[in-house]
Specification:
- This protein is of the alpha+beta class.
- Helix content is 14%, strand content 32%.
- It has a five-stranded antiparallel beta sheet with strand order 1-2-3-4-5, covered by helices on one side.
Length: 120
Amino acid sequence: MAGNLRPVTSTGIGYLLETVATNLRKAIRVGELTFSEREEETVYGRNTQILEVVFPKDRAKDYDGYRYVINQDVESKILLRIRVYDRDDQLVENYGYENLNLGARLTDADFDPKNPEYHF
């Protein structure tokens, strides 16, 4: 964990969406949320909409950051990249998800640690 803000187990799309949603709800409750949509940008070869969320600088620690810049896939609406900035507007987190396969055909064997293909 030296030099990292979160363990790798806390960087999946679901976890990050939950973190963003929790912070958005908290800011909305107290009227401290600034939200904007910007032009489209290509990320990992996909057209994305830029969503920017800004929290009060003096309360950035209460919101896991001062500013989130989120790239949402225009077609699938899936988060492809999120960048988190601290109260000094320095990039502190940058997570991206490239080549996502949302239609993967998985079976119970794919989640079985006894699966011989895993060579455990």
